[in-house]
C-alpha cells in the first residue's frame, strides 16, 4: 500500500529535510536549517476559504486607487506586518487564492492595481487544474532588532506526472516595521543596486505594482538577502539572475503575507489545533508530522468579501501600536543615522496591538 502524501506544505518540507541533498540543491544546508526553524515555529495553515479571502485582503484595498494612494496603503501595511511569534510558519492554499485572484482580475482588469504581468498571468484554470498548490512562509525575528524580520518562501507544485515538487526562493525577504532597515541589513539596500532597477525593482516586485516614487517611505524598509552557502556564493552573477527571475515570476506574492500579518488580529477566523497522528520513515527512524493551527474563515453571510477586506485593513491601520526605539537613516546628512525614540502610533480607542516574543521548542 502506497504511503499517503503529506497533507501540508510544512510536512512536505519536514520530510524533504531528511533526504540527502541533491547535487544541484542550493544552498546545500538550507533544508536542514529550515527543519530546525520549522520545529521551533508556531505553525498556521489557512483552509481553502481563508486562502481565498487572502486574495481579497491583499487586493481589495488597492482597487480603484491612484499609485500614490497605493504606495501609502502599502507603507502602512508594511509597518504593521509583524510576526505573531518569534518564529512563524504560515501556509495557504495557493490554488484557492489564485482562483479568487483570477475572479477579481477578470471581473474588471482596469480596477486591478497589480502590474500587467499579474493580469497577463491570471489563469482561468479550475481549482483542480492549478499546478501551484500551496505556498508557505518560514520567518523569524532578526537577532539584531525585534522590529526587523526575515523569511523564506516555499512552494508545493504538481508536475505533469502528478508527482510533487518542492521549491524555494533563492533568498530571504528582509523587512522592517519601524523605519528604514538598520545595520547590518541596511547594507543590502546598496547591494541590490546590482539588480536591474535596484531597490525600486525589488519594491515593485514585492508590492506587485509599478511606478513607485523614489521618496516612498517603505523603499528602504524591505529588501532581499541571497543565501550564502559554503561555496561563498552571495551576490554572484548567477545568484542575481536567479533573484531577478524569481521576483519577476511572482510579482505581488509577498504582499499576500504582509497583508495577512498586518491584519491577523482583525480577521474573523476560528483557530483549531490539529494534532498530527501520521508520520514518515527516514534514516531508519520514524518521524511524526508537525502539529499546527488551522485558521478557518468566519465571515458574515451575504457580505461582499472585498468590502469586508477593506474594513479589516482600514481598522488595522487605525489601531494603536507601539513603535520601539530604532535607528533611522538621516536623509539630511548622507551616511549618518538618527535615533527615533519609542512612541505610540495610531488611535488607542480602536484597540492596541502589542507583540511579545517567547521562543518555544517542540519536544
Structural class: alpha+beta
Strand tally is 16
Order of helices and strands: HHEHHEHHEEEEHHEHHEEEEHEEEEE
Query: Which strand-content bin applies to the residues?
Result: 25-35%
Question: Could you name the ranges where pLDDT drops below 50 across 5 or more consecutive residues?
Answer: 347-352, 355-363
Q: In this structure, how is the largest beta sheet organized?
A: 9 strands, mixed
Number of helices: 11
**Tally of domains:** 1
- Helical content, roughly? 25-40%
Give the distance, in angstroms, between the N- and C-terminal Cα atoms: 30 Å
Oligomer state equals single chain
Radius of gyration: 20 Å
How does the overall form come out from the CA principal axes? globular
Q: What integer is the average pLDDT?
A: 82
Structure description:
With 363 residues, this protein is an alpha+beta fold. Helices cover 33% and strands 25% of the residues. It has helices at residues 9-16, 30-40, 48-59, 67-79, 94-107, 116-121, 186-191, 198-207, 237-249, 253-263, 305-318; strands at 42-46, 87-93, 132-141, 148-158, 164-168, 171-176, 222-226, 269-274, 279-282, 285-288, 292-297, 319-323, 326-329, 337-340, 343-345, 347-353. The model is unreliable at 347-352 and 355-363 (pLDDT under 50).
Amino acid at each position: 500500500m502506497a504511503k499517503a502524501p503529506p497533507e501540508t506544505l510544512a510536512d512536505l518540507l519536514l520530510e524533504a529535510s531528511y533526504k540527502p541533498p541533491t547535487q544541484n540543491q542550493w544552498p546545500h544546508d538550507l533544508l536542514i536549517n529550515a527543519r530546525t526553524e520549522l520545529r521551533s515555529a508556531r505553525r498556521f495553515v489557512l483552509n481553502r476559504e481563508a486562502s481565498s479571502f487572502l486574495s481579497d485582503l491583499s487586493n481589495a484595498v488597492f482597487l480603484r486607487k491612484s499609485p500614490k494612494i497605493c504606495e501609502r496603503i502599502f507603507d502602512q501595511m508594511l509597518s504593521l506586518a509583524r510576526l505573531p511569534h518569534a518564529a512563524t510558519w504560515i501556509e495557504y492554499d495557493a490554488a484557492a487564492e489564485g482562483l479568487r485572484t483570477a475572479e477579481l482580475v477578470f471581473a474588471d482588469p482596469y480596477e486591478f492595481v497589480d502590474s500587467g504581468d499579474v493580469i497577463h498571468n491570471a489563469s482561468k484554470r479550475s481549482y483542480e487544474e492549478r499546478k501551484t498548490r500551496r505556498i508557505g512562509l518560514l520567518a523569524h525575528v532578526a537577532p539584531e532588532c525585534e522590529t526587523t524580520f526575515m523569511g523564506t518562501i516555499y512552494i508545493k507544485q504538481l508536475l505533469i506526472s502528478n508527482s510533487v515538487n518542492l521549491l524555494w526562493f533563492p533568498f530571504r525577504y528582509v523587512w522592517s516595521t519601524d523605519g528604514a532597515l538598520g545595520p547590518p541589513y541596511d547594507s543590502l539596500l546598496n547591494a541590490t543596486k546590482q539588480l536591474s532597477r535596484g531597490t525600486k525593482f525589488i519594491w515593485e516586485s514585492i508590492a506587485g505594482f509599478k511606478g513607485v516614487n523614489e521618496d516612498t517611505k517603505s523603499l528602504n524598509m524591505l529588501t532581499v538577502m541571497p543565501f550564502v552557502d559554503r561555496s561563498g556564493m552571495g551576490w554572484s552573477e548567477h545568484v542575481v539572475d536567479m533573484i531577478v527571475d524569481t521576483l519577476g515570476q511572482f510579482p505581488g506574492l509577498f504582499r499576500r503575507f504582509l497583508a495577512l500579518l498586518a491584519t491577523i488580529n482583525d480577521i474573523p477566523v476560528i483557530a483549531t489545533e490539529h494534532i498530527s497522528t501520521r508520520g514518515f520513515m527516514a534514516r531508519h527512524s520514524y518521524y511524526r508530522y508537525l502539529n499546527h493551527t488551522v485558521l478557518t474563515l468566519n465571515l458574515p453571510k451575504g457580505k461582499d468579501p472585498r468590502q469586508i477586506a477593506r474594513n479589516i485593513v482600514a481598522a488595522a491601520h487605525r489601531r494603536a501600536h507601539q513603535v520601539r526605539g530604532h535607528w533611522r537613516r538621516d536623509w539630511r546628512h548622507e551616511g549618518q543615522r538618527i535615533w527615533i525614540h519609542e512612541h505610540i502610533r495610531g488611535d488607542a480607542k480602536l484597540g492596541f496591538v502589542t507583540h511579545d516574543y517567547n521562543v518555544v521548542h517542540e519536544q
